[in-house]
Design goal:
By secondary structure, the chain is mainly alpha-helical. It is built from eleven helices and five strands, in the order H-H-H-H-E-E-E-H-E-E-H-H-H-H-H-H. It is 48% helix and 5% strand. It is globular, with a radius of gyration of 20 Å.
């Protein structure tokens, strides 16, 4: 998945629990899913929108977004086309603006020109100096709302998957540290309702990762808060951790049974979960709020 690439990504090679935090505005699906959404959105300039989605160039996206946004705003939320149009636009809006490649060469259009252009559509970007890029501040589509209100459509379910993969976080740990609890609550409810949807297998995998996060946190080394690391204790996570481990194992096995050919990484996770009594030190759905 082409997701979790925003400003607040934290990569920390240490034994203490940490994970990247992001906002829905930065989250994106894979290329095939993006294109399919734009094809099924049936905008007036459908071919141009699809080509802009395929090119991944901000200038191309800008040229079609004005008309697409007007059509979305004129589409009732109860209409069949609404969720596809909303999802397509969410994917089409660049999450960052910087130097962009085309055919091996950098395009000449300066990012600041694009920032000004997108502002005309009420899509704001802000400059983040360490990354030397402009990142999206205002997204015309509320991905969380799409995920919560439109589960009866494929594109609401695709939005649900994206929200799951970022731990249902609005960014910067505002919901607290234990993202795995929200992923478990929402994921279990989703799979009871949609056992075999387009995204159910991937939601099942993320649910396994959430349960594994619970177990790994319960086995993590305590930290009093020395140096750059915030305090951490595994004790609050130990109640229910054994059951979480067994649930993760069950879900990984279910996923592997249906995805044998492309699941080496999942097999490694399952093996680590079964064999290492100390846990794997992988915390997919834990947010270190003091980072």
């Amino acid at each position: 998945m082409r997701n979790v690439i925003g400003l607040w990504i934290l990569v920390l090679a240490c034994s203490a629990p940490a994970w990247c935090v992001d906002e829905p505005s930065f989250t994106r699906a894979d290329a095939a899913t993006e294109v399919l959404a734009c094809q099924q959105a049936h905008f007036a300039e459908s071919d141009q929108v699809v080509e802009a989605m395929k090119s991944r160039r901000a200038a191309d996206a800008f040229r079609v977004l004005g008309g697409a946004l007007r059509e979305l705003h004129n589409t009732p939320e109860t209409a069949a086309l609404y969720s596809a149009r909303a999802f397509c636009i969410h994917e089409l809006v660049p999450n960052s603006l910087g130097r962009q490649r085309t055919r091996g060469e950098y395009i000449s259009k300066h990012p600041l020109d694009l920032v000004t252009a997108f502002r005309q559509l009420r899509i704001e970007y802000f400059y983040y100096d360490p990354a030397a890029q402009w990142f999206i501040r205002t997204d015309p589509v509320d991905l969380r709302e799409l995920a919560e209100k439109h589960l009866d459509s494929r594109w609401g379910r695709e939005a649900f998957l994206l929200m799951t993969q970022i731990g249902w976080s609005q960014g910067d740990c505002v919901e607290g540290t234990d993202q795995f609890r929200e992923v478990i609550k929402r994921g279990e409810g989703f799979l009871k309702r949609y056992r075999r949807s387009e995204v159910s297998a991937r939601v099942r995998l993320e649910l396994a990762n959430a349960y594994a996060t619970w177990w790994n946190l319960s086995r993590a080394d305590p930290n009093p808060g020395d140096g750059d690391l915030p305090p951490f204790s595994p004790e609050p996570y130990q109640l229910g951790a054994e059951a979480a481990k067994e649930k993760a194992i069950e879900l990984y096995r279910q996923f592997l049974a249906a995805h044998v050919a492309s699941s080496i990484h999942v097999s490694d996770r399952l093996q680590k979960l079964q064999e290492d009594p100390k846990g794997s030190k992988t915390y997919d759905y834990y947010c270190n709020e003091d980072e």
